[in-house]
Amino acid sequence: MEHLAQGERGVDALADKTGLSVANCSQHLQQLRHAGLATSRRKGKAVIYRMTDTRTLTLMDLLRGVAASNLDRVDNILRSLSDGQDMPEPLSREELAQRMAEGAVTVLDIRPRDEFDMGHIPGAQQVTLVDLDRIIPDLDPVTEVVAYCRGPYCIYAHQAVAVLRRKGLNARRMEGGLPEWRAEGRPVLSGPEGRV
Known about the structure:
Helix content is 43%, strand content 15%. The chain is built from 9 helices and 7 strands, in the order E-H-H-E-E-H-H-H-E-H-E-H-E-H-E-H. Strand 4, helix 6 and strand 5 form a beta-alpha-beta unit.
């Protein structure tokens, strides 16, 4: 569901993203379709899937909340990313939009390139975790850096913030991810503009 929240995709692309076999991925997608969480359309010989309703994001967030409250492991994983230090509170999407309008923040999209091209926050720079060290010297040490990724289950933004903070930068992650930003009717661009 996290991958479908980024945009519609075919079975082969989803299998590649999730590391599942095409047959296994197809079975998962059929179950999601039967549950009404995903819908499909034909494009030539391919079947393209997408999320049926953006309210599914709310369901996913509720499930994350239940899991987080019952599993101390989630906090331990996140704390291990930051060498045992508490991470700063995430920045709300509303506050991020305000800071972007003021030009007071650098926004990093930590998702893979193909997901960035499908849609991203206007003005965001796409950078993967492996390339993060390369762009750090170019970041303004005074301007706050805000990272985002796929959504509440994605830890790319957590990892990026941990790296940036270890390098002495003022970094936080955006609450949620691109699907939540989009679901609120905020602007989204598609295409490669913003890749670094």
